[in-house]
Amino acid sequence: MPASDHSAVIRVRGLVTRFGAQTIHDGLDLDVRRGEVLGVVGGSGTGKSVLLKAIIGLVRPAAGSIEVLGEDTATLNDAERIGLQARWGVLFQDGALFSSMTVAENIQVPLKEHTTLDRATIAEVARIKIAMTGLPPDAGLKYPSELSGGMKKRAGLARALALDPEILFLDEPTAGLDPIGAAAFDDLIKGLQRSLGLTVFMVTHDLDSLRAICDRIAVLIDKRILVDTMEALRLLDQPWIREYFHGPRGRAALGAGA
Ligand SMILES: Nc1ncnc2c1ncn2[C@@H]1O[C@H](COP(=O)(O)OP(=O)(O)OP(=O)(O)O)[C@@H](O)[C@H]1O
């Protein structure tokens, strides 16, 4: 494998984000490696979603730099920004589907926005994405209100994959799913990540997901990030990490030896 395959596809340096007087991140550094599944964890309100939004340009940093796929996101003009956005897909927590559109129409939105493909090809791509995410073929004709929670997530994932992105951002993908549905969704993400060579940035609270599919884990603590493998992080003597990995839920998810 060439050395460049190990290079960071997301490089955050000295990130500071603020809302009014509240500082969310203060000098945060993070590298996300090409082809890895990175799980992002941390206590409630520590800034996991804000970090995701800062990386995809929905929150403007007060200081620091964010490079995605080699592009410094602060210096892009509109055309460059749109070009970069086409190289990642995002699945927000609730799926964020347009309720007035069918699943197929939802998936077609980014294709219509970012490509010059004809209607028949766009419809065919949408059909492929529906199949890839394990939805039945007739799901394309359904409206979001007619879908179960798990199907909504799959439809959101199909839309996130519409443009064959290099990076997939997931915000709490298994939240609200029952354990069997969550495990199936984890399997789907891991399978797609492997077959498509995706880099996955996944905000989650779900210890089962972390164990099942993440290569490394980033922990938001004190407005910064600690990143390592789960095995290495679990050895750290840090109060939140101890509680998270060695508390009752951590022990249950990680096995009796945790
Ligand atoms: N648009 C906004 N305006 C003002 N404050 C915000 C905004 N977005 C987020 N915040 C604040 O930033 C902090 C971090 O929020 P964020 O949603 O990133 O937390 P989180 O770590 O994802 O939490 P959770 O696990 O509970 O979802 C919170 O205190 C939140 O209230």
Q: End-to-end distance, in Å?
A: 34 Å
Largest beta-sheet details: 6 strands, mixed
Question: What best-fitting shape do the alpha-carbon axes yield?
Answer: globular
Number of strands: 10
The poorly predicted ranges are 1-5
**How many DSSP H or I helices?**
10
Bound ligands: adenosine-5'-triphosphate
Portion in strands: 15-25%
Question: Order of strands across the widest beta sheet?
Answer: 6-7-8-3-9-10
What is the radius of gyration?
A: 18 Å
Helix content: 25-40%
The SSE order reads EEEHEEHEHHHEHEHEEHHH
Average of pLDDT: 90
Helix-strand category: alpha/beta
Structure characterization notes:
This protein has 258 residues and is an alpha/beta fold. It has a domain at 93-164. It is 38% helix and 24% strand. Strands 6-7-8-3-9-10 form a six-stranded mixed sheet, sandwiched between helices. A four-stranded antiparallel sheet has the order 2-1-4-5, covered by helices on one side. Helix 4 crosses helix 5 (149-160), helix 6 (179-196) runs parallel beside helix 7 (207-213) and helix 9 (239-246) crosses helix 10. Mean pLDDT is 90; it is low at 1-5. Bound molecules: adenosine-5'-triphosphate. Adenosine-5'-triphosphate is lined by residues 19, 24, 42, 44-50. One of its GO terms (molecular function) is ATP binding.
